[in-house]
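Posting for a labmate who doesn't have an account.
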Amino acid sequence: SGYFFNLKSTKCITRIRFGNSLKNIAFSNCGEFFCVTLGHTVQIWRSPLLRKNTSCRPQLLRKFSAGGVISCIDWSPCSQKILISTEALICKIYSLMDKNAGVLIGHGQKNFKVAFSGASKRIVFTLSHNGSLSKWDEKSVKISKEEWFRSQKFTFNQQGTLISGSFGRDASLLAVGYDSGEVVLFDLLLFAQRKVMNVSNFSLSTCKLSNFNNWIIFGSKKSGRLTLCNWDDEDCVFKHNGHDAEVNSSSFSTDSTLLATGSNDSKVRVWNVYSGECVNVFENHTMSVTAVCF
């Protein structure tokens, strides 16, 4: 099941039964749509409207198969395209209501993070667990088909296994976390490494860049600890063991003042980024929270 919450009232606005375990969820940049994935199925919904005399129920706009189990998704800056990566080593780009899809082929391992360029819907980035980062450009635009090619490639060679990653909202910065506790910040505009930090003695199972690229959150399943820091001066804002189990997902609010985390303890916690205080706890779920988003 999926829940929509009002942060001010802490009330559940509506609940959706998706019928299967939810893997990914993401709002479009305009906020009008959201996309969820369940196995190989993609569902595109219109977000609930919170105006008077208007139904607050979300509306299912489209449902289709991506041809394989979906690992990650991202919306284009214009909110009209969706980038989807599957475990079949194929990425596809779908228009909001068009059945045709652009295809990115040539991945050596499945991607676990993908992103559109913040400045263009015709440039995308893909990141796989073997440390391979690729930049893809649209070669031509035809009426019935989009053609893409890999224009740049970089391989991370830090010691350890790449576990987690996060593209900044404007896709100018990438953060990757290793099982050794190291974090690498990569400049996507210069396509070069920018900084290496050793932030933990444990594997970094999750990391997330804020919308303005100034904050970064790290989570470790082994230690159960959340760490938020300003990566520029490496100043640690807070460290918390706020959940009773592993953190599976995190999301910053649009203005990056709040952070939401979802855990295997079936709870969603909302944190004040500046004070480190937990300001809300949502306990409606009866099973693990696998994805959260503002």
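Reply:
Got it, the structure tokens are right above this. The radius of gyration is 19 Å.
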